[in-house]
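Input (Potassium channel domain-containing protein):
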Amino acid sequence: MLPFDTAKFQVTVPITINLVLLAAYIMLGALMFQSFESWKFHSSCYFTFITVATVGYGDYYPKASMVNDLGASFVATAKMMISILYLLAGMALLSMAVNLMQEQIVEKCRWLAREIGLSGDSNAPKDPNAKKDPKALKDSNDSKDPNAAKDVEAGN
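Output:
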């Protein structure tokens, strides 16, 4: 149990900030792989996103820098380690950003459901007739249209 109230320290990060941060991270990775592999920028962006998202189609994979630097094994190992660490950090960043965005979207959907009356949430505004006795409703309907309640009772 935490000795302080965590609700006070809850911070929401706007969805646009999350998306900009992810885009910047992917572009930075693209520049890195463009440098390592001599790929075009859009191919490097594609590879970085596909790898960070753990889709991995296998159509792009780092090979040129590993083969070219085979004689200089330290350089090849350093590039490999930098790539692995960068992609692992990207997976964590993507996971965190998606989770933050999911929480905000779910909260906005709940708010919308409460606003339009679709939610059975206890915080939602109650229908004023919801807790009334059915006989009281029948009596109130009788005063407006005496035949309406009889039609309902008869099944018409």
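The chain has a mean pLDDT of 79.
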